[in-house]
Records
---
Amino acid sequence: MTPISRAPFVSHLTWASTQSGATAAAASDAPDLGQIPEWDLSDLYRGTDDPAVARDIERSTAEARRIKESYQGKLAGLASDGPALAEAIAAYEQLSDLMGKLGSYAGLLYAANQADPARAKFYGDMSEKLTRISTDLIFFELELNQIDEAALASAIKAPALAKYRPWLEDLRKEKPFQLEEKLEQLFTEKGQTGRGAFGRLFSETMTGLRFNVDGEPAPLALEATLNLLSDPAEPRRHAAAEALAKVFKDNIRLFTLITNTLAKDKEISDRWRGFKDVADSRHLANRVEAPVVDALVSSVREAYPRLSHRYYAMKAKWLGMETLSHWDRNAPLPDKPEQVFTWPEAESIVLKAYGAFAPDMAGIAKQFFDKRWIDAPLREGKTQGAFSAATVPSVHPYVLMNYQGKPRDVMTLAHELGHGVHQMLARDQGPLLAPTPLTLAETASVFGEMLTFRALLSETTSPREKKAMIAGKVEDMLNTVVRQIAFYNFERKVHEARRGGELTSDQLNAFWLEVQSESLGPAIALKPGYEVFWTYIPHFINSPFYVYAYAFGDCLVNSLYGLYQEAHPGFVGKYFDLLKAGGSKHHSELLAPFGLDAADPAFWSKGLKVIEGMIDELEAMDRAAV
C-alpha cells in the first residue's frame, strides 16, 4: 500500500513477451542478430560484494530507526508547522529512494538469471532485510492519515509541503482500508512467506520447466516453446501446443495450489481492509474509479464480434481453414515475409520513429543503448517476459527483454523504451510522486509501439507485405485489448468463486475455456489441452487484475494517436507534460488538455474503432484482390 512497503522490485511486463527465457541450445540455431547488449548494473552497485550494499543497508536501517524515534506519535502535532511536516516527509522520501535502489538491484540481478542459487539467495535475503526495515516505517503513513483534515489543509499552504499535495491526497484515499500499525506490520512481514514466497515459487518453477516438442533436438524452455506457436508450419505449432499442454497438465496440481493460495491470501487481505469487490484494491492502486473500468470492460466485450470474432474468421479463410485450432491463432499469414532484424537495425528503426515524433524522445531512448541500460539476449535461467524497471529517480530505468529478431521483438523494444522514456521524464517528481498508476503507465509504451509500427508501414510498398503488417498489428491490438479483458474476466471468476471455497483444477479450466471462447469467437476451436493454458500467465500470480491496464492504455493511445494525426494544437508539448507528471495527477487532469474523458463510454468506443477500422482495411484489401 505504500512506496516503501511495496515489493522492492516492480516490473512492467508487456503482453507480447510473457514467456520464459529460451535455452542456450535453442538460441544457438538462431540467425546472427549482431551484438545484443547485456546491461551494466554498476550504476546501482558493482556486485553483490560491493561494500556499498552493506553500507546502504546499514544506512537504511539507521535512518528508519531515526525516523521512527523522531516522528512516531508526533506527526499529528506537526500539522501546525507545514515546513516541519514537509521535512519529515522529505526524509521518508529519501529513504524510499535508498531502499528502492537496494531492492531494484537485487530484483534485476535475479531477473537476469533466476536459475543461479547465489542470485536467488541474494534476492531473498535482500527482500527480507528491506521488509524488516520497512516495518519500522509503517506508522508513518498511518499517522499522516490521522491528521485532521482542516489542520492538514492549513499546513499544506506552506510551499515545501504543497509539493506533496498530490501524494497526500492519494494517501487519504487509502485511509478507509488501512489497519492499525501492528496488523500492518504483520501483513508486511507475513508477505515474505505468503504472497512473495508463492510468487517466487511460480516464477522459479516456470523458469525450470522444459518441453519435449516433437521434431526438436532438445527440450525447450517456455519462451522457445511458445515461440513455435508462431511457426509457419502447422505441424510444429501443433507439436508445441501438445508439449505445452502435457507439461502444464503434469504440474496442474502445483499451479492450482498456488492459484488457490494466492486468491485466498487476497480474500483475507481484502476482507480485513474492507474492500468489497475483488478488484477494488487494484482500482485504488491505479487511482481509477470502478465505473471507468466497468465502462472499458463492457465496451470491449460488446465489441468482440466486430473485432476478434470477425478477424479470426478472416484469418481462417486466409489459411484455407474453416476454423483455426488454438495453436493456429498466432500463425503467420501465408507468404508472409519472414523478416529478421539485427539488433542494430532494431535500434535504428525505433530511434528513427521516436525522433520523427520528437527529437528529445529519441535522445532519451538512445541513452538506453549507449549506456547499456538494456539486457536483451536469450539466456538460460533468464526471467520470462520483458519489462522496464523504473528503479529509483536517483538512478535510471533498466529494460529487460528476450530478443530474437522478429518484427514483434522490435515492437517489444519500442514498447519497453516507451516505458523507459516515461520513467525518465517523470523522475523529477521524486520517489513518492514519480510512480505512475498502471492505467497510465502503458501510455508511452503503447504510443511508442504505434509510432514504430506507422514508421515501418509508411516505408512498405508491397501490398502483400503491407497487408501482413496491418494484420500483425491487428493481432497485437487484439492481444492487448480483447485478450487482456478476457484475462480480467477470468480473474474475476476465479477470485469471486474462491470466496466460496477452494477451487479444483477442473473449475479453473472451465473458467478459462468460458472466457476464451467468448472473446475469441467461433472461428477459434479450443482443442483438448488448451484448458490448462491459464497456468503460465504470470500476471495472475504477481499482479492480480493488472491486465486491464493494457486495454486501458491501448484504447487511450488510439485516441491520443488520432489527435496527433489530426495535428491537435500543441500535441507534443501536452504529451510530454502528461509523461512528466508521473503519478502527480489524476487521469482526468492529464487527459483534459486533449479534450478526452475516460469516464465517457464514447471514449472507449473511439479507441476500439481504430482497431475496427484496420480490420475494415484488411477486408477492403481482400475485396480488391478478388
---
Amino acid sequence: MPAKTRAAKTKNPVKTRKSAQPRQSATLPVWSLDDLVPSPAQKHIAKGLAAAARDAAAFRVKYENKLGRLGAEGFAAAFALYEKISETLGRYGSYVSLDRQTKLDDAAAGQMYQSVSETLNDISADMVFFRLELNRVPDAVFTKWLKHPEVARYKPVLSQMRAYRPYQLSDEVEKILHDRDVTGAGAWMRMFDETSAKLRFPFRGKTLTETEIFHHLLSDDAAARRDAHASIGRVLKENAGTYGFILNTLAKEKEVDERQRGFKSVMASRNLDNQVEDDVVMALVDSVRASHKRLSHRYYKLKAGWMGKKQLDIWDRNAPLPFAAKRRLGWDAGCKIVLAAYGAFHPQLAAVAQKFFDGGWIDARPRAGKDSGAFSASTIPSAHPYILMNYKNGLEDVMTLAHEMGHGVHQVLAAQQGYFMADTPLTLAETASVFGEMLVFQSLLASETDPAARRALLARKVEDMLNTVVRQIAFHDFEWQFHQARKKGELTPDEIGDIWMDVMRKSLGPAFKYDENYRYFWAYISHFYHSPFYVYAYAFGDCLVNALYMAYVDSDKKGQGRAFADKYIALLEAGGTLHHRALLKPFGLDAGDPAFWRRGLSLIESFIDQLESGGKADNLATQPRKARPRKKR
C-alpha cells in the first residue's frame, strides 16, 4: 500500500534507566530502501509484479462467485491468501511512493511511480470481487465463520470491511471506480505534490525551496520572518489558481462519491474508517472551539507582550521567544535525547528506536526535490517502517524526530498483527507519536537548570500543543466549511481565502494582525488534498495523550509507573485489533466522555497558567490542575 501517509532540580516522574546510544555519524542519514526492494529496483519490481499478477488472477478464478458457499476453513484459507497477495502489492507500492518522496522533481521517479501505481491498480482489480462478495455474505453465515479460530483472528478487519455494507454500490460501478482511481483523485494528488516540489521562493537574492523558505518563519530575525512570509504569500497567490482547481476537483469527486454511497456527510466516511463515532468527534471539536479564549487567545496575547507588541504580526506566530537562547542540536545530540527519554519510560521503546538508527530506516537530510514535511511510513509488516524528516539542528527538529519515532516504534510493535490489522485507525495513530514528544519534553524540562530556558521550553511546548490541537481543529473547520460551500459550486481562490481567514481569526484570536498574503496559505496544506478530514486525528491524539500522560503521572506517584508503561506497550502492540474504548479502558479513560476532552485540554491550560503567573514552572506534569467546568456563555 502507499506510504502512510511538527534548571531547577525537580522530581521527574519517569524513573531513569540506561538507554542505548545511537551509532550514527554526524552526517545526516539518507535511507536505504533495499529492505523493501533490492537493487536494481526496477528489475525486481517488474518480476515481482508479474508474479503477483499471476497470483491475483488465479485467486479470482478460484474464488469469484464462490465466496458465500465456502465453509469456515475454506474462507480462512481464502482470506489468508488475500492478505498475502495484498501485502506483496503493498511492498512495491511502498517502494515507489517512498522513492518518489525524495525525488519529487525527478521526472523518471514520477514516471516509475505512476507506471507502478497503474500496474498495481490493474492487478488489484482481480481482487475487488472479494470485498464485494464478503459484504453480501448473510450475517448467519458470517457468524458461523467467526466460530473458526483462524477466521476469528481476523474479526477486527472483517467487521470493519462489513461496516461498509450499507454504502457499497453495484459490482459494476465499484469495479469502474477502482479502475479509474489512478486517473482520478490519485492523479490530482500527484499534481499537487509535483506542483509544490517545483515551487521556488525568492528571498533576499536567493531562490529557495518550500522547506527552506518555511524554515525562515522560525528565524529570530523579525525582518527575515516578514520577508519569508511575503515571499510565500506571493508565490502561493501566483499558483492559487492551480491549487484551487485541484482542491475543487478533489472535493467534488468526494462529494459525488459519498452522496452516491449514501453517507450523511462528507466526513462520515472518514469517521467510519477511523472507527470513531460522529458524536465523539463532535465532542472533541466542540471542546476545542470552546477553549479558544482560554488557550490560543490567551497564550498569543502573552507572547505579544513578551515581544513588546500590542499585536503580533501573523508571521510571528512561531517566532522564537526573546528569552529563548538559540540552541543548536546536531543529529547525534538529537538522537541521544530521544533515545534517553524513550528508554527512561520503557527500555523496549529505546531498543526498537535504535533499529531505525542502525538500519538506515531514516532519511533526515534536507535537499531539493524532497518532501518538505515529515512522516513515518508503515510500509508492510514483513519489512519495517521508514521515517522521513528534514533535520535543521533546532529543538523543533528534535521534537519532530521524537514524534515520527513514536509512529515508527508503534508500527514495529504492531507488525505482529499482520498486514491488515497492524495499522491503527487515524484517531489512535497519533498516540505514540505525541506521547513520544511528551516524554522528550519532560526529559528536557527536568534536565534544564536555567529558569529562562525552562520558561522557553514550556512556552515552546504550549505552542506545539496549540499547533496540534487548536490549529488542526481550525483546519478541520476550514475543510468542513469549504466542502459544504463546494456543494453549491466551484469556489474561486479568493472565496477559499475568505473561509481560511475567517477560521484563522476565530481560532488564533485578536492578538494577531493578518495581511493579504496570509489569504493563500491554505494552498500548501497537503492534508487538504491527500487526506480530507484527517486533521482532527492530531487533536484527538494530543488530547488523548495529555489525559494518558496525566494518568501515568498518577500511577507513578503510587509506585505503579512501570506497570503503566507495560500496559502502554500492550496498547501499541494491539495495532488495529481493538476499538479506542477497549484500548483506553485499562487506563481508566473513555473518549466517549466529554470530560475526557476537557481533561486533555486542561493540561495545556495549566501550562499557560504557569507562564501567565511568571512561576518557575516546576513539577508541571506532576501536578496537573483539575479540568475546569465549561462556562455558560
---
Amino acid sequence: MKVFFRFFKLYPKESILSPLFKLLEACFDLLVPLVVAAIIDKGIGGDDRGFIIRMTLVLVLLAVVGLSCALCAQYFAAKAAVGTASKLRRELFAHMQSFTYAQTDTIGTSTMITRITSDVNQLQSGINMTLRLFLRSPIIVLGAMVMAFTIHTKSALIFAAAIPLLSLVVFGVMLGGIPLFKKVQARLDRVTGVTRENLAGVRVIRAFCQEEEEIAAFAKVNREQTSLQNKAGILSSLMNPLTYVIVNLAVILLIKQGGYQVYDGEITQGELVALVNYMGQILVELVKLASTIFLVTKAVACGNRIGAVLDMPAGTEIFPSDKSADTGAAVTFENVTLTYHKGSHPSLSGIDFSVAPGQTVGIIGGTGSGKTSLVNLIPRFYDATEGRVTVNGRDVCSYDPAELRAHIGVVPQKAELFRGTIRTNLCWGKANATDEELWRALELAQAADFVRKKEGGLDAPVDQKGRNFSGGQKQRLTIARALVGEPEILILDDSASALDFVTDAHLRTALKSLPHTPTTFIISQRTSSIRHADLIAVLEDGHVVGLGKHEELLNTCDTYREIHMSQFKGGEEA
C-alpha cells in the first residue's frame, strides 16, 4: 500500500479536513440523546411547553450543523479519493506503456485491464469510505460508551460487555474475508480474459460455429468466480445478523434492568431512553464500520495488486557494449538463441548470418518456425537469450530503445490502425511529416488511389482498429506509415498477405525504387514475394535450414523447394 500513499499524500489538506468534519458531526450526534432525555424529563415530565420548543429548535440546529459537517466531509473525501485514483490510474497506464513485449506477455492484457479499472475503482471507494467513516464510527462507539457512563455507571457496564463482543464479530469476519476477496479479484482477471478473447474473436467463433463451446468455457470460469464470490458473500452476510443479535440482546437487558432502576428512582425515564439511543447509535455505527472494513480490505488487496505492477521494473535496460565495430553489415545475428518467458523449447536456435546495407532479405518458413521472432530481435522487442544482434556494428542492447527504433520502420503481422484520421495514423511514422511526404508514402504503399477517393482525403476518418477499411487497405496504410519516416531498416512482417498478386508486385517494385535504399526484411508465405530478394533465409522449427538466393535454394533447400512447388505448378507461376 506504500504505492498509493505516494499519491494519497498529495492531498494532505483534504485528508485532514474530511475526518475532522466527520469528527464534528459525530460530536453533534452524541449530543442528540442528551437533548431528547432533557425533553422527556424536564419538558414532558414538567409539562413545560416552552422548554420542549426550545430543545426542539436545538435538535434542528444540531441536525443542520451535522448535515453541513457531513457535506463538507464528503466533499473533501471525494476530492482526495477521486484525485488519488486519477493520478494512480494515469501513473499505472504510463508505467504499462513502458513495459517490454516480454513483460506484457508475462502479466497478460486482461490482468492489466483489471488493474487499471476494477482495482483502481475499489481503491478509490476504500479511500472515500476510510476518510468518511473510519474515524467517525470508532468515535461514536467509544463516545456513546463514555456518555453512558456519565449517565449511569451500572447500566453502562452493559455497553462495556457488548462492545468487545461486537468488535470480536467484526474483526473475525474481516480477517476471514481478506484472503477470500484477494482470490475473488484474482479470478476476475480470468473472467475478463475470457470475455476479451471472445469479443475480439467473435467473427471467427461464429464462422466455425463455436458459440456453444465458448459459452460453456465462459460458464465454467464464471461459475468458479461466482462460487468464490458466494463464499465471500456468505461470510460477510454473517456480520449484520450477529451484530444485531448482540446489540438487541444488550437493548433488552438494558430495558429490563433500566425499568427496575427507573422504578427505584436510580435513573430517570429520559436517561433510560438516552441509553437505548446510544445503544442504537453503536449498532448503526458498527454496521457502517463493518461495511467500511470490508471495503478497505478489498481496497488493500487491490492496492497490493496495483503495487505489484508498479514495482515491476519498466522499460528496456541498456547494456553498454565494448564490442562495437564497423563490420560493414547493417544487421548481424551472432549465434542467436531466443527462449520466451517460461518457454521450455527455444523459439530460435543458432541463428548466424549478416545483412549488408541496402540488401533485401526474404524470410520464409512454416507456421511457428520463428519468422516474426527473428525480426522482433532487431528493434529489440525481445532480447536474445544467447548470442547477440547488432545494428550497424553495435549491439542492439547498447542502444537507447528510442534511438534504435527511430531508424527502423516496422509493419506488424496484424495491421493496426487507430481511431482518428488517415493523417494522424500516418504521422505516427513521422510526427512533423508534410502533406507531400504523406502522399509520397501512400504512393509507394499503393494506397494513394483509394485515399483520394475518400471524402476528406488525408483527413478522412478512421474508425477504431480501422474497421471502415478492408484488410488490404489497412495493410497498405500501415506500410505507408512505416515508409513516412524513411527508415534505414524496414521490416515487413507478412504485410502483403491481404493484397492481390498485382498490387503485391507493384508494391515490391515501388520498394526497390526507394531513394534512400533501406535494408529491408520481408516475411512472406509466398515465394513470389521474396524470389527477387538479395538473400532468403528459410526457417524451420527455429533453425535456419537454408540461406541464399531463390535459384540456389531451389536446388539446395528441400523446405524452400516444397513451399515453392506447393504454390506454383511445375515450379512456374500458374
